[in-house]
Amino acid sequence: xxxxxxxxxxxxxxxxxxxxxxxxxxxxxxxxxxxxxxxxxxxxxxxxxxxxxxxxxxxxxxxxxxxxxxxxxxxxxxxxxxxxxxxxxxxxxxxxxxxxxxxxxxxxxxxxxxxxxxxxxxxxxxxxxxxxxxxxxxxxxxxxxxxxxxxxxxxxxxxxxxxxxxxxxxx
Length: 171
Known about the structure:
Blueprint: H1 3-23, H2 42-62, H3 78-99, E1 108-111, E2 114-117, H4 118-143, H5 149-154, H6 158-169
Antiparallel strand pairs: 1-2
Helix pairs in contact: 1-3, 1-4, 2-3, 2-4
């Protein structure tokens, strides 16, 4: 495995771990909360992310646009979906590693039907994790104003962040 592949896979794993922190500690009702009708609930987001992984794998293998209509949302418990998401992500990383054992930064890679330079393409996959992390953070704060984003994601309270930021700006 060359440095380009190792760095891309490490970054993709980090974006998924970052996303999963946003789901930690949610209760039953929060999984189905929607702040507005067009927004996916966290549960629906898990379903969507499994399809994202599987359709990305299809695109990597075929070099073309995936057949999105062939994917149906998984039905099951939150634990079932989290398990499926873990498995689909592991499969995605394995397909990338197997298909691109020694990529250069500019090696073409097909992501959801579009060709990208390798490093940019894998970053595009990570952007999906980050987009949905923001969506889940918004839903969590809308549903539970006591949820402390900074504590949950970074292990420090909002006042710790503001205090250190204030000291840095106003010594």
